[in-house]
Design a protein that fits this description.
This protein is an alpha/beta fold. The chain is 34% helix and 25% strand. It has helices at 30-41, 58-67, 103-107, 134-144, 165-171, 182-189, 194-201, 241-256, 259-274, 284-294; strands spanning 3-7, 11-16, 24-28, 47-54, 71-79, 84-89, 95-99, 123-130, 151-155, 177-181, 207-211, 217-220, 226-228, 299-301.
Length: 304
């Protein structure tokens, strides 16, 4: 299976639960969870995590990747301490994230295509998590010109404001798949009903993954739009479920080209991640369980 480059942060998350429970520190970040999803959907070493890290944290983060069979060859030293994020969850399921060392420090650890340690032609796909920063997208534009495999953009919540709709549309030709959750889509499109979101996104120039949390997901594009169900799970910690879904979807889709099948694998991988505080270790047995669970996930065509 081809390597999937996951370009996003691995951080230390300080998690504050909505119920006022004990604060927990875990390795996290969009890149970390997307890489776990890619590893669950692929083989050992399929996921290549590309992220800036702190020299003081290197041994810990390399070990963390090894326990999840994620390649750590893309981790590059960007300073003394890796980013740390304070995450406050709210009763409605939403959350607020704050970089503990400040936004400038966090941004200085942002990976770019130049940080990918393998030849682009050896990659089966690339995962991005970012906002609308112009300089960043200039680098992605250059990358797109050299890269023919699928690129998935999981858009950040900060970018999903009504005034940014045109800017988002301008960037879509640089990617192949857009991953967005329901609340983000409501905000970006300035609507408050799911049918309105689906109607607006069906005309997008790229495949769209509309993530609905415990209600599954909708995949628009790649053929007939489909509603993807969920895999049975007990949600212990929702952190990273959406990132894992995106990473697993890209990995499966890059291998099969089947958007519906990729959605079922993504749902199964996400169910494993949310069932664990932090993130699960990845083994061959867990991968087999994900593939089996994927066969039980419902796929319902969305009719015109």
């Amino acid at each position: 299976m081809s390597t999937i480059a996951v370009l996003s942060h691995i951080v230390i998350d300080e998690i504050h639960p909505a119920n006022g429970g004990p604060v927990v520190a875990n390795v996290g970040g969009a890149g970390a969870f997307a890489a776990v999803g890619a590893s669950l959907a692929g083989d050992s070493g399929t996921a290549l995590l590309v992220s800036g890290i702190g020299t003081h944290d290197r041994a810990t983060l390399v070990e963390w990747c090894g326990d999840r069979e994620i390649s750590s060859k893309g981790l590059f030293d960007a300073g003394a301490h890796s980013p740390r994020t304070r995450i406050h969850y709210f009763a409605d399921g939403e959350r607020e994230e704050t970089p503990m060392f400040g936004l400038d420090h966090f941004n200085s650890y942002t990976p770019l295509p130049v940080n990918i340690p393998v030849h682009f032609e050896d990659l089966g796909g690339a995962y991005l998590f970012h906002d609308l920063d112009t300089t960043y997208w200039e680098r992605i534009d250059e990358f797109r010109g050299k890269f023919s495999s699928p690129i998935l953009w999981e858009i950040s919540a900060e970018a999903c404001r009504p005034e940014n709709r045109d800017a988002v549309l301008e960037r879509l030709p640089l990617v192949d798949v857009l991953s967005i959750n329901e609340a983000e889509a409501f905000s970006l499109l300035a609507v408050n009903a799911l049918p309105d979101v689906v109607a607006a996104l069906r005309g997008a120039s790229v495949m769209v993954l509309l993530r609905l949390g415990a209600r599954g997901s909708i995949v628009l594009g790649g053929g007939r739009p489909v509603r993807i169900g969920t895999a049975p799970t007990h949600a212990a910690d929702p952190t990273g479920g959406g990132n894992a879904y995106s990473g697993a979807f890209l990995t499966s889709f890059a291998q099969t080209g089947d958007h519906a099948a990729a959605g079922t694998v993504a749902a199964a991988a996400a169910s494993v991640v949310v069932a664990n505080p932090g993130s699960p270790k990845v083994t061959t047995a867990i991968r087999s369980a994900v593939q089996h669970a994927a066969t039980k996930v419902s796929v319902v065509p969305i009719l015109d």
